[in-house]
Amino acid sequence: MADSSAQINALIVDADDPERLAAFWSELLGRPIVGRMGPYVWLRRENGLGLGFQRTDETRTGKNRMHFDITAPDPAAEQQRIESLGGRRLEQYADGGFLVMADPEGNEFCVIPEGPFELDDEGRASYLD
Q1: pLDDT tens readout for residues 27-70
Q2: Per the count of CB atoms within 10 A, which of 12, 64, 83, 111 is most buried?
Q3: Helix (H, G, I), strand (E, B) or coil at 75
Q4: Is the pLDDT at 76 greater than 70, yes or no?
């Protein structure tokens, strides 16, 4: 494989209401909103990675092609906190054993334990059992 100097600088999430979505993720991740420019709202950069929310008029259709995994010492307790912030659990993914949540605009993300966990041969988790 060839050496490359390319790196991921930031993840950008399209949003109907970037202020609302940035406020949700700011509370969830403990990263304050640090900037606004044009259609963008930015959270504090951490570990070299930026997280921004861009206003778009395009309607979201279908399942996300990429999602965040966030870690928590107690995923079940984190689910309650996420719901209090305006997120919701996506029950249609429960068979996979992962705690799949959605932010206020329906963007999917998983809450996984901080430590290692097992997956079966089909890629299903069991950390919620």
Answers
A1: 999 999 999 999 999 999 999 999 999 999 887 777 778 899 99
A2: 111
A3: helix
A4: yes
Q: Read off the amino acid at residue 49.
A: L
Q: Is residue 40 part of a domain?
A: yes
Q: Could you tell me if 96 and 53 lie in one domain?
A: no
The verdict on 35 and 80 lying in the same domain is no
Spatial distance between the Cα atoms of 24 and 77, rounded to a whole number of angstroms = 17
- Same domain for 20 and 77? no
- For the question of whether the overall pTM of this predicted structure is more than 0.85, the answer is yes
**128 is in which domain, residue-wise?**
67-129
* One domain for residues 48 and 8: yes
Q: Using alpha carbons only, give the angle 39, 42, 29 rounded to the nearest 5 degrees.
A: 135
Residue pair 104/114 in contact (Cβ under 8 Å)? The answer is no
Q: How many domains does the chain have?
A: 2
Q: What is the pairing mode between strands 49-55 and 99-102?
A: unpaired
SS3 of residue 45 by DSSP: strand
Of the candidates 100, 102, 94, 97, the one whose C-alpha atom is nearest the C-alpha of residue 119 is 97
Let me know how many helices (H) and strands (E) the chain has, helices first. 2, 8
